[in-house]
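Purpose: get a first structural picture of the assembly so the mutagenesis plan has something to point at.
Setup: two entries, given in the order below. No constraints added.
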Amino acid sequence: MDAKLDMFEDVNTSPSLEGDMSIPGKRTTTTATSPGGVPDYNTLDEPIRETVLRDIRAVGIKFYHVLYPKEKSSLLRDWDLWGPLVLCTFMATILQGSSSADSMSDNGPEFAQVFVIVWIGAAIVTLNSKLLGGNISFFQSVCVLGYCLTPVAISLIVCRVILLAAQTRLLFFLRFVTTTMGFAWATYASFVFLGQSQPPHRKPLAVYPIFLFFFIISWLVLSHN
Amino acid sequence: METLSSDNSVELPAQIEVNSPSQQTPEEPIESGIEAVPEGAGKAQHSLLTLEYYQQFFKVDTFMVLRRIRNSMIPKLASGNYLRMDIDQNPDLYGPFWLSITLIFSIAISSNIASYRHYAGNDYHWHYNFQLVSNAATCVFIYAIVLPVVLWALFKDSLKPVLYEELDSASYTPTLLSLICIYGYSLAIYIPVSILCVIEIALIQWLLVIIAALLTGFVLIDVMKPALRNSKYAIFLIIGILSVQFILSAGFLMYFYQDSLVTGTRFLQQVPCYQSPLKTSPRQSLGIKDCRSMWIWGKHFANVFISQTLITC
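Result (structure tokens, whole complex):
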């Protein structure tokens, strides 16, 4: 009687020990990835231009997803802070008190004030959301809030263009409407991304600071002249 | 620590990644028990540097926050044991913090609107004054933080000596967090008041401000009654609380809405008039006449309301 011990090699069985050590927040691209989210190619040998272009494309895709908020995963899974930085710097540059024409000083917000309001404001809103028990990470939330400034930045550009003409009540009303639309769009977009991360009995408590954050920034945009 | 996600570990890479250090919403049952904390002992378990320690101050939901705001605006709406049963058991920092921030920005925005409307008709090239945000922030945070600390110290210091056969409530002083919570929520009524003060009629502005000060003063005294009863200096504390409310309200109106007060002043003649709207810096500090008028009004109202509270207490 032969007792045969069959030893089979695990060649093609489903990987029980294989898996992905994908660290949360690791930067992956949405193109050319295996199902595990790791790029197939070796990024060490490629020219720098391709690396930069890939990141720029990722940022551009996120801007697109903010403007048409249908798909959530790209901002949340592949968060990055380039977009918020670009937007914040752009808005702070335009919004800073350009009082060189008059003798008055310190009337509009300084560059640093806008910067602080955007970043510290996003951090405080995120902290509030986490303290209330939300299950979203810090940087994901800051990323979403930063990218959702895109409509506000667009309304700032439009207001700046309107300000080139001589001001009348109609133009002020136009600016008001533009700013309101940007504010509503930004709040709606961030609600789409962040709204699911809170339990329902606390959702208004978490949404109100987001509303306040965009309201303050829209106010800065509107009162800029 | 995995509490509920242990059966999802195979599918993680393809999903939206959530990176949360074992946070639980209050409605989820605590299943795995290594760090399971029983409900009542939550405060002692976490170190000061973790997020969980501060989560205990945010254990509120929408309904509770709205109820606390409502209780802070309407006197006598809360029960007699509101301070001990409700606020002390669950002091929250969500309300005070966000109400303060909202108030700061509503004051800054309304003040700018008021000064814009004052100067809109002239050739004066109006500029947004961003310094107001910093000033408003200073005032509001002093009120919301320094005042409760002072009051807490006074309560502790002035506790009447307790005989051992008296009730437990005779040795009660409110905790610092409860006082911060109460004072924070009492700011709620100033938000609509600050928005309505852009109306350029001095009578309405003063009326709004006085009503707000009355309501908050009453609410504060009513809520703190269990603690005031145990204090040696009850009368002085009452006078102090009320007068601080009036000084705060009047000061806030006279500083932040200076420009619109000038246009509508039929009621108070001592507000200093401006020479010309083309001055480069329209902001002036409060003069001696304003302080004297504020003192006279303050004394009058304080007399009326001390007698009222002495009757009710």
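Confidence is low (pLDDT under 50) at residues 26-36 of chain A.
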